[in-house]
Amino acid sequence: MDSVIVCVHGRSEQWHLKDQILADFQGGILEGLGRLPAPVAIGRERILLAFYGDLFLPDAALAPASGGAAGQRLSTAATWPGEISSYRGSMAPSAQQATPLTAHTAADPLYQINVARAILREAHQRGLIESGSAEGEQAPTAFSPHTGGGLVWLYSLLVHILQGLEHILGAPRELLRLFVSDVDLYLHNAALRAQVMGRLLALLRQQAGRSIIVVAHSLGTVVAYDVLNTHREIPITAFITLGSPLGLSPFIYQELLPPVPPGQKHPFPANVAAWQNFYDPNDIVALVPALAPLFPGPPGQAVICTPVQNNPADPHSLTGYLIQQAVAQAINNALLCKTPLPSKLK
């Protein structure tokens, strides 16, 4: 059976050209395969990209999602005990009924604050904060969004906390700030999420009759999981995730599709034959790399989670992941339609 690799890019790619991102995937995959002793030959034309970055541009107009306005938020932002609740979840009804026209008008500063604080806490626990930096540590104990000037104050606090992310060792200056923003927009803007998922779904459906390998990076792993788990009629030979934030709970994990009742776990997608997750221990986006317990599958099937050493200057680097021999071997095995033995599952 003919094989095809469908790639799903991550956050903040709205400022890059589609062909540039595709070239990064193609070059990284081919270079990684070239490091193996006996790689499967695959042409660039069989490495495809589900591009959705243009939907995140500030001037990108969004069609209304079914049953809602273009900028409607899907849900109130999840919070941990003691965290601030969603600003948009507590707005006055007149404000909630506004009809934004782009993805960015549905942004929720409080959700972004909570995610940024969760990342900062994890970075502190791992010892990844530059010495002498206390940015982002202060947070309000109480706040009423209905008070005058509240939204301006919120955005000021968000800017302050996001500045703290710039002090995380190994994290490029803009990476985490844009990641926090794009995660919020994708998860909570109904129209944006539907259109992003639609791009990947359309590409997968075009590959009917082929062996499909999905390689996803960063926020793209969230998009890919949403699509694979809601369209189980599409068989997937291998799902390979790189630098994935899927395990970040509750901010991402609890908001995956389709929703599950409280206390239940999201499943290992039934249409996926094998799922391998790769992470650099210093990749702060991959906050919770142990995905197997979070996505249980039937006996003998589980997410294989493998640590790798990515670029020290950018542990979240896409190409840095793709050229890893372990990642290349997973792709090579999938091209050969070889799935990991049950004894190796963990």
UniProtKB/TrEMBL annotation:
Protein name: Uncharacterized protein
Top-level taxonomic group: Bacteria
